[in-house]
Automatic annotation (TrEMBL):
<dbReference type="InterPro" id="IPR007156">
    <property type="entry name" value="MamQ_LemA"/>
</dbReference>
<keyword id="KW-1133">Transmembrane helix</keyword>
<dbReference type="GO" id="GO:0016020">
    <property type="term" value="C:membrane"/>
</dbReference>
<keyword id="KW-0472">Membrane</keyword>
<protein>
    <submittedName>
        <fullName>LemA protein</fullName>
    </submittedName>
</protein>
<keyword id="KW-0812">Transmembrane</keyword>
<dbReference type="InterPro" id="IPR023353">
    <property type="entry name" value="LemA-like_dom_sf"/>
</dbReference>
<dbReference type="Pfam" id="PF04011">
    <property type="entry name" value="LemA"/>
</dbReference>
<comment type="similarity">
    <text>Belongs to the LemA family.</text>
</comment>
Length: 182
């Protein structure tokens, strides 16, 4: 009878651990979906931004083409490829930064209400992307802790739960604090 009670407690504990792993994986998937939605919103804004800038900055064709190319690459990354998507999105973010810097050189463009609204929308989306990335990385951390911690790691390996990659900036230069000179 005692052996049966111990076996029942162990089985119940294993079920709780397994359910905790499933929950952590689902939270991670939901968090990735949040990033994906924000990245899609940004990708949808880019064509309007490009068309607005094209009218003013005819000499900046190379930068405009690079932004479009990187947007297309970002949308072509297979679903679930967090590292690949992070790398392409990092490059796209840099290209968008260069595009905004180009806009500074064109006073008429900066004064354009359409450009101002697009720029404000893009900034809002960038803020949402940053929040979504933090949420995803927190969910990935929670899943990774469960996958690596004893005794849940025994169930994780038995049921093929894997560590989740973090959505990180690949380029070390992007992490550096920019120098401000007056």
């Amino acid at each position: 009878m005692i052996g049966l009670a111990i076996a029942a407690v162990v089985a119940l504990y294993a079920i709780l651990l397994y359910n905790g792993l499933v929950k952590a994986r689902q939270v991670k998937e939901e968090a990735w979906s949040g990033i994906d939605v924000q990245l899609k919103r940004r990708a949808d804004l880019i064509p309007n931004l490009i068309e607005t800038v094209k009218g003013y900055a005819k000499h900046e064709r190379e930068t405009l083409e690079q932004v479009v190319e990187l947007r297309n690459k970002a949308q072509a990354v297979p679903a679930g490829d967090v590292e690949g998507r992070a790398a392409v999105e990092g490059m796209l973010g840099q290209a968008l930064g260069r595009l905004m810097a180009i806009a500074e050189a064109y006073p008429d463009l900066k004064a354009s209400q359409n450009f101002s609204e697009l720029q404000a929308s893009l900034q809002m989306v960038e803020d949402e992307i940053q929040m979504s990335r933090r949420y995803y990385n927190g969910a990935a951390r929670d899943l990774n802790v469960k996958v690596e911690s004893f005794p849940s790691n025994l169930l994780a390996s038995a049921f093929s739960f894997a560590k989740a990659p973090y959505f990180e900036i690949e380029n070390a230069a992007d992490r550096a604090v920019p120098a401000v000179k007056f």
